[in-house]
Amino acid sequence: MNEQVRRLQEELHRAHYVVEEGLATVLYLAQRLARPLLLEGPAGVGKTALAKAVATVRSVSLVRLQCYEGLDASQALYDWDYPKQLLTARTAFAEGVVNQAALYSEPFLIERPLLRALRERPAPVLLIDEVDRADEEFEALLLEFLSEFQITIPEMGTFRAEEPPIVILTSNRTRDLSDALRRRCLYVWIDYPSPEQEAAIISLHVPQIASELARQIARGMRRLRKLSLLKPPGLAESLDFAQALHELGAQELDEEGVRLTLGCLLKTEEDLNFVRERGLDVLWNA
Amino acid sequence: MERLTADGMNRLTGDIVRQVSDFAPWLRKHGFRAGVPETLTAISALAELDLTRMDAVCSAFRSIYSRTPAEWGAFPSLFERYFCGRGVQLEQKRRLQPDDVEDREGGSGGDQTERPPVDTVQGLLAGYHPNDGERYALRADEQVLKDVVQWTRLAVRTMDAPRGRKWRPRGREKLDLRQTMRHAMRHAGDPFVLKMRRHRPDKPRVVLVMDISGSMKPYAPFITSLAWSFTRARARTQIFLFSTRLLRVTSLIARKGVAGITHAELPGLRGGTRIGGALEQLLRRYPGLLQRHTCVLIVSDGFDAGHPEQMHTSMRDLAARVGQVVWLNPLLGEPGYEPTSVGMSMALPYLDAFVDVHDVRTWKRAVLSGALQSAAP
Fold it and tell me: Do residues B258 and B140 make contact, with C-beta atoms less than 8 angstroms apart?
């Protein structure tokens, strides 16, 4: 294995993120080639957590842009401080000194996450979370940023990153992202971890838990995800479940422990009823 | 941006560069959208990797060339076939591609092993067994495209549109500081005129679910034109195909609906029809698309080989979740046709409109009749 990839893998492990070699290689390349990384996968498999872990490893800040429908340039790129501009304009007019261009300068500029990520030093990790929730128009807005690492403000000019940030985009595939966006990114599909990986992750995050119980939980999660649930439990749910079982002093999966903590795993009434009817032993009986 | 530097290239022999350059065209024959930028990125990546570790190279190339989960899943075996020479041989696969045959000198088109599309239409009973029926490529009919787009745009204008979260500059709801500020500059900085704004109506949301089982083959050019026209209208449209399973093809239709979509680009769609199962998949996998303002258009003849109960529960859940369910049935206008098949009778109680649409004329009639116009939410 490439020495740097191995080191990155170890550092991520120390930041409590278990990453397999393939993903570590892509992460390493994303940094070296200065390409954004597009992570897709089911909800709760650790896409957002990866960005946090990378920020921790690099000891830089994490700039997060949470996407939603209706997100536009004034919330993602930059905005002007209008009340301040109005007050300044009134004062300037009263004094008879008017410089309109000065009103659109640095003191009146409000940085939003994308601009902040460009200008911050050292370069932060920029997380553009759930980009599929934003509109198609917003994707077009991202294109200049993702390919050139620059933002153009008509009144001030173009800002280019001296040191490109590490950009991680996540998507839950609620809609198809455009080809133009995908083309600019390295792509990774993150699926649910294997039981062995999941047991390792549980042991890492809940170190007090017995290793046998961690393995039992991981196998149980795999069985649950095979059921036709409305909201299959993700990694976050299995960590909550493991933590809850540990707090209750459980040493192994049993009916009583699972009954009390099922709400950590299943988040809809339909799923809860479905699993109860099916029998809670679905978690530990093959 | 690809940062292809001479330093990086020095480590690579001409043979490696040629292999990687040829990889993108080869992948394109397997449905990947790989081009020169991907090749440049891949070569840059090779300069960073240990070339003796093919698994690391595979991981890197996988992230560079894949853009969808389907491509992500298929990539390792393709990589192995191309670079490691295991499994099915490269040359053998190249002969499968009709486009490639024309490019090769003396190419032997007769060696194609892929089952060619059968021209016979199996009639109305094609959906009887899930594995019966046939697959066919989709291609929009260029003759009708212009007319279809015109009527689809009209249809979209009549649809219910949710209130957008974006603001437009005029209105009575909220102060627009940007406009107020601009205006104040004309009045010595005094905001005499407060510019207000209000929400813009969002685009209508349309989910188009199209049956491509064998019995729908005669209507394939028209429904492909119809689907393509929705990608050119002011609507947030998602397009799905189904036979025995569901496949989202929005970008594929938008990109290639006119030029034609081959069988290879529609993986996993086999002959036969399971409408209930497909709708259930839609409900489970894409709940975010099915909202109060969504209009679901189902294009199918209604011959369902799945369990009637599944059809019933799927239609019931779908109708409860979305604003409008419209069934476009190409057989409805045929003399003597009655929607008495089990699938159709299960669906009928939950439909807001049930219309005959099989060509431009019937589509125009459906639009003008207001069948797609929703009741107030």
Answer: yes
Is some CB atom of chain A closer than 8 A to the CB atom of B72? yes
B303 token code pair: 């011959």
Which residue among A146, A174, A189 closes a domain?
A189
* Chain A neighbors of B206, CB-CB under 8 A: none
Both A53 and A13 in one domain: the answer is yes
CA B328 – CA B326 distance, rounded (Å): 6
Question: What class has domain B142-159+202-368?
Answer: alpha beta
Do B24 and B36 meet the contact criterion of CB atoms below 8 Å apart?
yes
3-state secondary structure at position B137: coil
Answer yes or no: are the C-beta atoms of B360 and B226 closer than 8 Å.
no
Q: Kindly report the CA angle at A110 between A105 and A113, in degrees rounded to 5? A: 130
The Cα A280–Cα A4 span in angstroms is 45
Contact call for B60 and A29, based on CB within 8 A:
yes
Q: Degrees (nearest 5) of the Cα angle A235, A236, A241?
A: 95
What are the boundaries of each domain within chain B?
7-103, 142-159+202-368, 165-200
Is the domain of A150 the same as that of A266?
no
Q: Domain range holding A219?
A: 195-283
Q: Using the beta-carbon criterion (under 8 Å), do B185 and A29 form an inter-chain contact? A: no
CB contact under 8 A, B67 and A183: yes
Reported ipTM exceeds the 0.85 cut: no
Residue by residue, pLDDT tens for chain B (377 residues) are 333 344 445 556 777 888 888 999 999 888 888 889 899 999 888 888 888 888 888 999 999 999 888 888 889 989 988 887 654 443 333 333 333 333 333 333 333 333 333 333 333 333 333 333 444 457 777 777 878 888 888 888 877 666 666 655 554 557 777 777 777 776 666 777 777 776 667 788 899 999 888 788 888 888 889 998 988 888 888 999 888 778 888 878 887 777 778 776 776 666 667 888 889 889 888 888 888 889 999 999 888 888 888 889 999 999 999 989 999 998 888 887 887 888 888 889 999 999 999 888 999 988 888 877 764 44
- Which distant-in-sequence residues (6+ apart) come within 8 Å of A182 by Cβ? A38, B67
- Report the candidate in A75, A77, A69, A71 with the shortest Cα–Cα distance to residue A116: A77
Residues 151-210 of A with CB under 8 A from B: 173-176, 178-179, 182-183, 186-189
Is B310 within 8 Å of B278 (Cβ atoms)? no
Which residue among B181, B250, B284 sits closest to A230, beta carbon to beta carbon?
Answer: B284
The CA–CA distances, whole Å, from A134 to B106, B165, B296, B315 equal: 51, 11, 21, 29
- Other Cβ atoms less than 10 A from the Cβ of A183: the count is 18
Q: Chain A contact for B182, CB < 8 A?
A: no
Q: What is the CATH number of the domain that holds A182?
A: 3.40.50.300
Outline where DSSP puts E strands in chain B.
163-168, 174-175, 196-201, 205-211, 236-242, 246-248, 294-299, 324-328, 353-355
CA distance B284 to A43: 14
